[in-house]
Amino acid sequence: MASLDLITPHLSKIKIPGPQQLIYKDECVYSFDNPESETGIYVSLVSFLGFGRNYVEQYFQKTGNAVFLHIQREKKPVPEPEQTGDGPEKKITRLAIGVEGGFDPECGRPKFTYTDHYAVVVLPGFHTYPWPNAELPDVVKKSVQAVIDAESPFKIAEMAALQGTWDGEAREVSVHAVNLKQLDNGIRIPPSGWKCAKCDLTNNLWLNLTDGSILCGRRYFDGTGGNDHAVEHYRETGYPLAVKLGTITSDGKGDVYSYAEDDMVEDPYLADHLKHFGINVQQLQKTDKSMVELELELNQRTGEWNTLQESGSDLRPLHGPALTGLSNLGNSCYINSVVQVIFRMPDFVRRYVEGAPELFATFPEDPVNDFNVQTAKLGVGLLSGRYSIPEAEGTQAGVAPHMFRQLVGRGHPEFSNKRQQDAHEFYLHLLTLIERNSRHKPNPADCLKFAVEERVQCTESNNVRYTTRAEHHLPLPVALHAAANAPAVREYEQRRAQAEASGQRLDPSLVVRPHIPFQACLESFMKEEIVEQFFSSAVNKKVTARKITRLATFPDYLLIQLKKFTIKEDWTPAKLDVAVDMPWEVDLSCLRGRGLQPDETPLPEAAPDTPAPTYNEALLSDLLEMGFPVEACKKALYFTNNSGMEAASNWLMEHMNDWDFANKFEPPGAASAASAGAVADEASVEQIMSMGFTRAQATRALAATDGDVPRALDWIFSRAHELDAPAPAPDRALGCRDGPEKYKLIAFISHMGTSTMVGHYVCHVLHEGRWVIFNDNKVALSENPPKNLGYLYLYERL
């Protein structure tokens, strides 16, 4: 053992962590090294940050913090249990949180045992002192023991995200639970032998908590499920809450649905409500699948699920640089797929992978919450190949992006929880974060940025107006009307309807989905739109106008989104089950916009006294309560002349898939639409002026950032030297790169399931001339890339 004199000079800096101190002992803050890595992890007894062997010396040289707790974890597989005549061990029925190594899905027991070995290490020289060690100074012993006893910050964050959830799905307490009306009708529910009161079904049964009726649930899209008798009962009686029989547990939990709120909910008084009908929850056991389990199972039965995962193929696992998988940290497959695609573009590699050594060398005070550090850490981890280590059943160790996920989701209403989310929305959120954190460096997302050109023509004067805006994706509508196999689809739908009418079910794997030509989707995007309520400055009144949309520039990389997600007539989300013939290579020159032509007359600038739109506040409030974005609600009221809820809601339903559905609303033909940048909101201008900037500076910054105040402040601070310079002439290209319109497909992301909220994402990437499937931490050679079933497609300029 090294001399204790080596520790003495550093005792004054060593700290004893308090109960609120986060201790990063599970993973290096700059790499994905962890206690199971060959060299373990070193936790500073000053900052309580963890470092792998590659970074601990640099940290010491930068900070002088020399004393660390070294953690090395020994991992051993659990031996197979001896078989007895008692049958298999009991399966788990809930997600296991905080259990090392997870569970064997076949028997519910831990797969591995873990033994942690500790030592105190002093740099330089890595002088080692064994632990436990009575000879160590008291402050060192207390600090080390506190680190060992501390909860993992990853586990703390996971528990916070899962608080009040079941299998990661957050549920609100029902407003009907507190004062639920329960009828004294003498009904007593037996402990078993349940059957629907209106048909012969004995599964998928729901107990209405008001009158005690037992009725079957909804019919699923594939014909399975129930006969809708429970929901019909609600429509007849208005009794709001029902619990799914078989999901009730002895602690008073179960699947409760609120028909009035149209959602799964929490009923904190469920045990009392069940007692009213003679049910003692302490004697109950969960015997049926939860709604989340059922939907996941339903997804897996479909042909789409198997096709997108290439389940019928003997996939050969791949390992090495740029072939690193990502652990699914509880419904994080949408993050995993987007990240795998992002790091296929050289601009992102240069910024975050090649630039990582310079970035890490600065050793920021709080690397855990430094967006650039954590993004670089992720990029290096994915592309280096260091963590692409083979494991059993075709998986690999891969990387677990705990810190990245927590950082990008912090404060966001969707991405901060453990529910499945939309990969496209996360893509846009990630690009926003990258832009905010590229103040002094080139923004790598510029390779995806392009200018959209809109040409609007007044039908009375024939004058035109051109406007441009910047985008990072091209949304294409799914042209269902153009299905190449329409007769076969109609025949299948007829057979399915006949089967449902007779109580039979068609095999979901034999579904006939519409096959849509890519060109039809392109033409749907390009077709002329009719714009009502357009204020024409040429005739000084509202008229009907015609609008066409084109691209003013073409980016180095073009991300195409197929608008597969929609809202059904009953206001529930749905996904179009279609196959779109996406091309391997494509020429998009037909999308090229040309700007104002010599034979065209531009519309005059709108008069400053153009009347501002008015919105019926009561209608606006009602629409917002339905969950629609405020800007979309304004559009609906404007284009329906505030005529009522039915007209406005119908407009919203018809325009749900518009790519600017939730964008800031500018009345068509208003003065602000005439310029490249929108007129700034007065409240935003005043907010920036309150920080000491002039009105001209505030207005210019907001115009350059689409009216976003935080981005406008970043814009101002990064351009302090040019704030008072004359504003440049309008740039039709908006500073976007431009080039030829020919592209090749290099990656696509696919979604399995009926909703963005439940299902699974995988991605396929063209790597060194061959297609690779990334299914979380499974990485394999793709034999049949299902490009016609994708959702997001990344094209690279040829």
From TrEMBL:
Keyword hit for Lyase: no
InterPro entries the UniProt entry points to: Papain-like_cys_pep_sf, Peptidase_C19_UCH, Ub_carboxyl-term_hydrolase, UBA, UBA-like_sf, Ubiquitinyl_hydrolase, UBP13_Znf-UBP_var, USP
SMART domains, A to Z: UBA, ZnF_UBP
Domain of life, per lineage: Eukaryota
Keyword annotations: Hydrolase, Metal-binding, Protease, Repeat, Thiol protease, Ubl conjugation pathway, Zinc, Zinc-finger
Residue ranges of every copy of the USP domain listed in the record: 324-798
Keyword Protein transport: no
A Pfam family recorded for this sequence: zf-UBP
Domain UBA: 614-655, 679-719
UniProt xrefs under Gene3D superfamilies: Cysteine proteinases (3.90.70.10), DNA helicase RuvA subunit, C-terminal domain (1.10.8.10), Zinc/RING finger domain, C3HC4 (zinc finger) (3.30.40.10)
Top-level EC class: hydrolase
Reactions mediated catalytically: Thiol-dependent hydrolysis of ester, thioester, amide, peptide and isopeptide bonds formed by the C-terminal Gly of ubiquitin (a 76-residue protein attached to proteins as an intracellular targeting signal)
Domain UBP-type per the UniProt entry, residue ranges: 172-281
EC annotation from Swiss-Prot or TrEMBL: 3.4.19.12
Similarity field: Belongs to the peptidase C19 family.
Protein name, as recorded: Ubiquitin carboxyl-terminal hydrolase
Source organism (scientific name): Loxostege sticticalis
Lineage summary: Eukaryota, Metazoa, Ecdysozoa, Arthropoda, Hexapoda
